[in-house]
Amino acid sequence: MHAADLELFNTIAQSLFQAEQNEPVIRPIPAEDLHQALDLELPDAPSTPEQYAQALQQLILQTPRTTTRGFFNQLFGGRQSKAVIGDLLAALLNNSMYTYKVAGPMVGVEKTLLRKVSNLVGYGATAGG
Predict the structure, then answer these.
(1) Can you say how many angstroms the Cα of residue 41 is from the centroid of all Cα atoms in its chain?
(2) Which DSSP category does 97 fall into?
(3) What pLDDT is attached to residue 129?
(4) What's phi and psi for 28, nearest 5 deg?
(5) Cα distance between residue 17 and residue 61, in whole Å
(6) CA 9, CA 7: separation in Å to the nearest integer?
(7) Contact 68/24 with Cβ under 8 angstroms?
(8) Residue 104 reports pLDDT greater than 70
(9) Residues 98, 100, 105: CA angle, nearest 5 degrees
(10) pLDDT tens sequence across 68-95
């Protein structure tokens, strides 16, 4: 990952956090106005880094803020920062869980969690397969 990409992520994340505080619920863009409100076209020529950053930030800031307490729809319950870190690291690692060779110690984490949850719901020691 390039340092500039990480910096862009942090900039957009900070903009989103600020926007969530200032305006927890945004007015949705009507579906028929979406392409006029946001440039969603895929140009033939590559975007400059500045164009890319601007388009990405605009897209993020116009997306429904389902993590705020003011959003009451479906099953959204906010943002848990430790879970976000886990999601980000999982994407950064880009591992799969199908073999120990590609998952490494994550297999142990998975087995430990499954064992704990199995015990909590009463499945017992033989639930692991």
Answers:
(1) 23
(2) S
(3) 60
(4) -70, 150
(5) 10
(6) 5
(7) yes
(8) yes
(9) 115
(10) 877 777 766 678 899 999 999 999 999 8
- Give residue for tokens 């998952």: 103
Structure tokens at 25: 């619920």
CATH topology of domain 3-94: Aspartate Aminotransferase, domain 1 (3.90.1150)
- In angstroms, the CA 41 to CA 100 distance is 41
Task: List the one residue out of 5, 88, 3, 19 whose CA is nearest residue 53.
Answer: 5
Task: Identify the CA nearest to 118 among candidates 83, 105, 126.
Answer: 126
State both tokens at 119: 């015990």
Give the CA radius of gyration of the chain.
20
Q: Where in the chain is the domain with CATH 3.90.1150.170?
A: 3-94
Task: Please report, rounded to a whole number, the percentage of residues in the chain having pLDDT higher than 70.
Answer: 95
